[in-house]
Write a structure and sequence with these properties.
The complex is a heterodimer of chains A (467) and B (305). Chain A has 467 residues and is α+β, with helices and mostly antiparallel strands. Chain A has 16 helices and nine strands. Chain A is 53% helix and 10% strand. Chain A is elongated, with a radius of gyration of 35 Å. Chain B is built from 15 helices and no strands. Chain B is globular and about 70 Å long. At the A-B interface, helix 1, helix 2, helix 3, helix 4 and helix 6 of A face helix 1, helix 2, helix 3, helix 5 and helix 6 of B.
């Protein structure tokens, strides 16, 4: 899962190790390149045979299963699905024009732009955090642990996290709980006025169809509310005591077991408390109140005629049930979230090693000169670990380009098209039923071309370090 | 490969000029100083929880019945511990497809790891200590191959394996994993071996040791930490692999493949997927916690010295 990462990272870490211990003298001395002939008696021919014996098996495998296939794939990408007809650049044209492959390429672009930078930033933050707390080792282990598990297991894990139903999905359970704390849900969603009653639907709420005058007592029957959503403190419906202004009652016009009369407050029928009631005149709300436990409300200050009584839309809003994480709209961000969970520990560990190798004097000097921790971080720490940050970014970019398993596993089949990336599309067209080796090879070559800069980056480092 | 980090670091402004006199500290800075310690601790705990919960959720879900899992979230098991049961695991042990695939995973992973270590250390030794023409170029090629995406080889390799008659079977999966594990293995081990003091090797040669016995008796024992890191890495990525198995191992599917098949009907198969995934994670987690030092060293690849 992490194959591509090590060389860059590894190279770097070696550098750090050396930086810490000082360049070891015996290493330079031990470099055979510098030492020339190393064994007095051995002739070139003999060394060639030895090299062949030691290198042969590995070289053979690399030649047959890696190097030759690269050439063959390039050749295939210029041929049709049958692998025989020469089609020139057709597969490449198709790759950039067909809807599925274009979607895959665009998604990959999103992945590459977003993921490495987010993971590296988080890694840097976590690495700095570990320097400030005790038990940092436990923290590091916890964050690093997802690196050890498969993308499949991570995919299953996050299928559970992202479950749409807030009763089952942890993430939606959390955000629904938070949402409901700040905006408590209304119990009355789905309820509606009794047909033939005085109320009609307006903008999600309901309002009286005929004008209401002061001194009137309006009875507003509501139906369609399940018994278990009647608030516990609801009392038997009743009009508030007579007084100045306008009054009324909102109640659930339904008697359990039947027998109630429509539009009439029967003995066991409950009022609907805490309902927001608005009095409207000439299209503007002039007074607002809430119903009491018996469903009664009053506007004692209203003395005129011709009001409209409105039950505000907020009384009937559907409860918030979280987000459809793995639906077409959010699937890519959701999968990226899981990917970040897997890789943040990797970035943290590399950056931590970088921080540990920083010259303490530079940090101390800045502190002695009165720099705040933030200034030390911005002006000393970050510039010093920059090389490590770049290595982490490059490593992640290579891995993100090739991301496959997580997208194959985490999104349900219904949204896999929306989540598609190049590596997945390559598998689909070549093996997952498509059997179009030409297009599959073109997609593979695209991936290959995209990692070439990283390849050159590695070789240049190698050259420079050896030179 | 030995450059001191600080050599490449940009020149720093002298700290004194950057921050002089009474610093104009922003509100954030003052808050950080004031509540920094506590806030950092709270943040660390929150992040830790965020990173533990998904895995914990899978573990708990694997111990609940399908009915419980489809009705409520795993966290309900904390208030109703009676929901916890080992039934899923007992059932899983009766599931031939899953048990067989776990066995396949072992049969793929162990030889892949041993072969990469063996071939990689031989080649790494040759590139480090046997002087022959074209050696440096060969090493550059090896380094170049490290980042090659496997997609660029899977179609031709499928053809090759078809010709040989192992397409879809364990040997094909192993061969592919070894081939694509080798570049990094050679790179890592060559870099480690080259740090072995020349005197040690010369002394062995004086005693008349052959090149192979020097490799076996001097280089391998000294190279042990790097070999261990490599072995753990190779083990983990072969164990966790899905793509290579999908393409080359369909007749002898490993556990990742077998579980992916079940995911078509995720919620009704959660009694297989949950415990199966958790079992498949167990080995990597044990390896991870038992050898975390080598694992981290593997990530830092070569920081061992």
């Amino acid at each position: 899962m992490t194959r591509a990462s090590e060389p860059v990272g590894g190279d770097r870490a070696k550098v750090l190790a050396n930086g810490r211990s000082g360049a070891p003298a015996h290493r330079r001395q031990g470099d055979p390149g510098a030492g020339g002939r190393r064994r007095g008696g051995s002739r070139l021919g003999e060394r060639r045979v030895l090299a062949l014996l030691f290198l042969g098996p590995a070289a053979l495998m690399l030649a047959v299963l890696v190097c030759y296939p690269i050439m063959y794939t390039i050749w295939l990408s210029l041929h049709g699905g049958d692998g025989a007809t020469f089609v020139g650049a057709d597969n490449y044209v198709k790759m950039f024009t067909a809807a599925e492959t274009r979607r895959a390429i665009i998604n990959n672009l999103v992945w590459v732009v977003v993921t490495p930078s987010v993971v590296t930033t988080l890694g840097l933050i976590f690495a700095v955090l570990t320097e400030k707390v005790r038990r940092a080792t436990a923290f590091k282990l916890i964050l690093f642990m997802p690196m050890a598990i498969s993308f499949l297991a991570a995919g299953v894990t996050f299928r559970l996290v992202y479950d749409e139903n807030p009763e089952r999905g942890a993430l939606n359970a959390v955000i629904v709980a938070v949402h409901d704390t700040f905006a408590p849900p209304s119990p009355y969603y789905g309820a509606n006025p009794r047909d033939g009653g005085p109320l009609a639907a307006v903008d999600g709420g309901y309002q009286t169809t005929t004008p209401v005058d002061s001194g009137d007592a309006v009875a507003l029957p509501v139906v369609g509310l399940p018994q278990d959503r009647i608030p516990a403190d609801a009392a038997t419906a009743a009009l508030p005591p007579a007084g100045p202004g306008l009054r009324g009652v909102i109640w659930l016009d339904f008697t359990r077991g039947g027998g109630g009369k429509a539009g009439v407050i029967d003995a066991t029928e409950k009022g609907l408390p805490e309902m927001t009631v608005e009095a409207v005149a000439d299209g503007t709300v002039i007074a607002t109140t809430r119903t009491d436990a018996a469903g009664g409300f009053a506007f004692p200050e209203l003395t005129g005629d011709g009001y409209t009584i409105r039950l505000a839309a907020e009384n009937f809003t559907e409860p918030f049930n979280g987000l459809t994480w793995l639906g077409p709209g959010l699937v890519t961000p959701a999968v990226i979230g899981a990917y970040i969970w897997i890789w943040a520990g990797f970035a943290m560990v590399l950056i931590s090693a970088g921080l540990a190798a920083l010259p303490r004097e530079a940090l101390e000097a800045a502190r002695v000169d009165g720099a705040t921790e933030w200034q030390v971080f911005r002006r000393v720490t970050v510039p010093l670990v920059r090389p490590v940050l770049i290595v982490v970014l490059v490593t992640l970019t290579i891995n993100v380009l090739k991301v496959f398993d997580l997208i194959y596993v985490l999104p349900p089949e219904s949204s896999q098209d929306e989540a598609n990336v190049v590596a997945l599309e390559m598998y689909r067209v070549s093996f997952g039923g498509g059997l179009d080796y030409g297009l599959g090879s073109a997609l593979a070559v695209l991936l290959f071309v995209l990692v070439l800069p990283a390849m050159l980056f590695n070789i240049r480092r190698l050259r420079r370090d050896q030179g | 490969m030995s450059v001191v980090t600080t050599a490449r670091v940009p020149e720093l402004e002298p700290a004194g000029t950057a921050v002089s006199g009474a610093p104009h500290r922003g509100l954030v800075a003052r808050l950080v100083t004031r509540f920094g310690g506590a806030a950092v601790r709270v943040l660390v705990v929150l992040v830790s929880l965020l990173w533990v919960f998904p895995t914990l959720g899978l573990a708990v879900a694997s111990l609940r019945s399908t009915a419980d899992n489809s009705a409520t979230g795993w966290w309900n098991a904390f208030t109703a511990p009676s929901q916890l049961t080992l039934n899923n695991y007992a059932q899983l042990m009766q599931n031939d497809r899953i048990v067989g695939s776990l066995w396949n995973t072992v049969l793929i992973t162990v030889p892949s790891t041993l072969l990469v270590v063996a071939l990689g250390s031989l080649a790494g030794y040759a590139l480090a200590w046997i002087d022959f023409p074209g050696r440096d170029l060969l090493f550059v090629v090896v380094v170049a191959l490290i980042v090659v995406p496997i997609q660029v080889a899977i179609i031709p390799d499928a053809t090759i394996f078809k010709h040989v008659g192992i397409y879809g079977q364990i040997p094909a999966v192993i061969a592919f994993h070894v081939a694509f594990g080798l570049p990094f293995a050679i790179f890592l081990l060559r870099n480690f071996f080259i740090g072995i003091p020349r005197d040690l090797l010369e002394a062995a040669r004086m005693d008349g040791a052959t090149e192979f016995s020097i490799f076996r008796k001097v280089v391998l024992p000294i190279g042990w930490p790097a070999i261990a890191s490599l072995a753990i890495f190779q083990f983990l990525w072969v164990w966790n692999d899905l793509l290579v198995a999908l393409v080359f191992g369909f007749d002898n599917p490993p556990i990742t493949y077998a579980l992916k098949e079940q995911m078509r009907a995720f919620s009704s198969n959660i009694d297989v997927i949950g415990p199966g995934s958790f079992l498949s994670m167990l080995v990597p987690l044990v390896v991870f916690f038992a050898f975390q030092r080598y694992f981290v060293q593997g990530v830092l690849a070569g920081s061992v010295k």
